[in-house]
Amino acid sequence: MMDDVKISIDTGAIISTRDFYNEVGKRYEDAFSHDAGLQRILERFLSLLSSNASVLDVGCGTGKPVSSMIAGSGRKPYGIDFSATMVELSKKQVPQGVFQCCNMLRYAPPSPSNFEGIIANLSLFGLSRAELTSMAHKFFQWIKPGGFLLIGVFGAEDCETKPEQWDADGECASRVSNIFMGHRVFMTLFTKSGWNKLLEGAGFTIAHTESDVFSPPAAAVCDDDPHYFVIGQKPSIA
Questions:
Q1: In b/e form, how buried is each residue of 123-152, taking b as 16+ CB within 10 angstroms?
Q2: Are 76 and 52 in contact (CB under 8 A)?
């Protein structure tokens, strides 16, 4: 994974991404689990799936709100996260789910095309452009024909960048800075049209997009989140 560090704005100390998420644990949920825009798009996404669908939560965190909403809808949540602390919290808070501690880049589902839905909300920023392209194709492989993918990301045009951070095609920026839970983090971001093209290049049809700004509570010490949500569908087999 790219830029596997978080830098504390309070002390200047450097901490690995995994250790960072192990440390923030429940505080992350307290700051981000009440995002009304996320809850709305999750409701829309879940309405597209069958009532007994299996849904993979990529970067499941504490299990709230994503996996808990999947379970609350009667569907079966599966979650992966590379923070052992987050996975343990998910197991406790969403006992209906199946959760695994692993890196998404090395995850292998129980069987090909296993999930009717996949959700990756705010969990893709630490990847390089090449890794993001790889993950888009993996998502396509893991989803059943006719199934859906939801990604929650930021559009690069909604964040502060410098010309030298952009790739030559103007669709992706690297090392975009953001304050998150009192730490400065660096992200890889496509433009909104670039995210769409990423999924289309993997084989998805874009079914829905929407933008929403979430302002975390002041105690979280975070920048505002300019969310961009994309729902893609894998074509059905004729």
A1: bbbbbebebbeebbebbbebbbeebbbbbb
A2: yes
Residue 13 pLDDT grade (very low, low, confident, very high; cuts 50, 70, 90): low
- Interval 95-126: pLDDT, tens: 999 999 999 999 999 887 789 999 999 999 98
Three-state secondary-structure class, residue 80: strand
> 233: part of which helix (H) or strand (E)?
strand 225-233
CA-to-CA distance for 69 and 136, rounded, in angstroms?
Answer: 23
Q: What is the pTM of this model?
A: 0.89
- In the chain, the N- to C-terminal Cα span, in Å, equals 37
For 149-159, write each residue's pLDDT tens digit. 999 999 999 99
Which of 72, 46, 229 has its CA nearest to residue 147? 46
Q: From CA 100, how far away is CA 172, in angstroms rounded?
A: 30
**φ, ψ dihedrals at 57, nearest 5°:** -105, 105
Residue pair 194/151 in contact by the 8 Å Cβ criterion: no
